[in-house]
Amino acid sequence: MKMFDEEIVDRIDAISKNKKLIDIANNFMSESTIPKYCYNFKWQNRPIIQYPQDVLAMQEIIWKVKPDLIIETGIAHGGSLIFSASMLTLLDIQDCHEQKKDTLHLKESKRRVLGIDIDIRKHNKEKILEHSMSNKIDMLEGSSISDEIIEKVHNYAESYEKILICLDSNHTFDHVYSELLAYASLVSIDSYCVVFDTIVNDLPEGTYPDRPWGQNNNPKTAVKKFIADNHNFIIDKDICNKLLITVSPDGFLKRVN
Ligand SMILES: C[S@@+](CC[C@H](N)C(=O)[O-])C[C@H]1O[C@@H](n2cnc3c(N)ncnc32)[C@H](O)[C@@H]1O
């Protein structure tokens, strides 16, 4: 009899060949983008600008990688920072459980989230700082591709061993490619650099009339160039084949060496 995990592999393989289901998912992605479907969710009461499927995928990745540092570009209302901090807290609780320690030892954890945003709005910053997860969060204000911020992030990351990165700021080719060049080297082996909004490439031209990104200028075009030149990363296709509904098709980059 097959084990449940083997059955998952078979199911994902079947789904990845199911043209009807893939077409429905792709239609859902293009139809749901314009009414701003992803702006309607919260994590622990902070708006998180993500599709629920991607949040669940991040939960699986974080639980598997067990990072001690998550670096995120693009804070907005702080929902993804709070989500990452809450996942790191759950990992701390799991550590206590495995080491048969009580949760008083949570304070010993060094796991942290570092968020970077060019414009951390005052009201968002206040809400993030007053949140119960804030003790795990640090924030830097400035462009994620400025020399100053890149240096600060590298200094911050020096004392961490397992690093996961999420890129979700400006979605132009130039910006995301510069972020990949600046930060991908920090990703630990077997961990991920998750590039959000690669979906822009697959949506009809004109979907973002008020944004500089579009079909030939977006995170997926940056990923393509980066992956062609950097063989220590692969695109983890299984994650997207499983999700079908994701803003990050070909955006889950796994460091393999
Ligand atoms: C899509 S939102 C981030 C959403 C957030 N990760 C979440 O899941 O809720 C994009 C954010 O990127 C920020 N941003 C835009 N350009 C940036 C840059 N050059 N450097 C850093 N952040 C930038 C914007 O200010 C905005 O808050």
Structure description:
- It is a single chain.
- The protein has 257 residues and is an alpha/beta fold.
- The chain has a single domain, classed as Rossmann fold.
- It has nine helices and nine strands.
- It has helices at residues 4-16, 19-33, 52-65, 79-98, 122-129, 147-157, 173-183, 219-229, 237-243; strands at residues 42-43, 46-47, 69-73, 112-117, 137-141, 163-167, 192-195, 233-235, 252-255.
- A seven-stranded mixed β-sheet has the order 5-4-3-6-7-9-8, with helices on both faces. The chain has a two-stranded antiparallel ribbon with strand order 1-2.
- It is globular.
- The relative contact order is 0.14.
- The chain binds S-adenosylmethionine (SAM).
- Residues 48-50, 73-77, 79-80, 116-119, 143-144, 168-170 line the site of S-adenosylmethionine (SAM).
Strand order of the largest sheet: 5-4-3-6-7-9-8
CATH class (first level) name = Alpha Beta
Count of spatially separate domains: 1
Q: What kind of sheet is the major sheet?
A: 7 strands, mixed
Query: Helix content range of the residues, please?
Result: 40-55%
Give the integer mean of the pLDDT values.
Answer: 96
Distance between the termini: 34 Å
Structural class: alpha/beta
Q: Whole-number radius of gyration?
A: 18 Å
Number of strands: 9
Shape: globular
**What is the string of SSEs from the N terminus onward?**
HHEEHEHEHEHEHEHEHE
CATH topology: Rossmann fold
What binds here, in terms of ligands, is:
S-adenosylmethionine
Spans with pLDDT under 50 lasting ≥5 residues? none
| CATH architecture assignment name | 3-Layer(aba) Sandwich
Total of helices: 9
Strand portion: 5-15%
CATH superfamily: Vaccinia Virus protein VP39
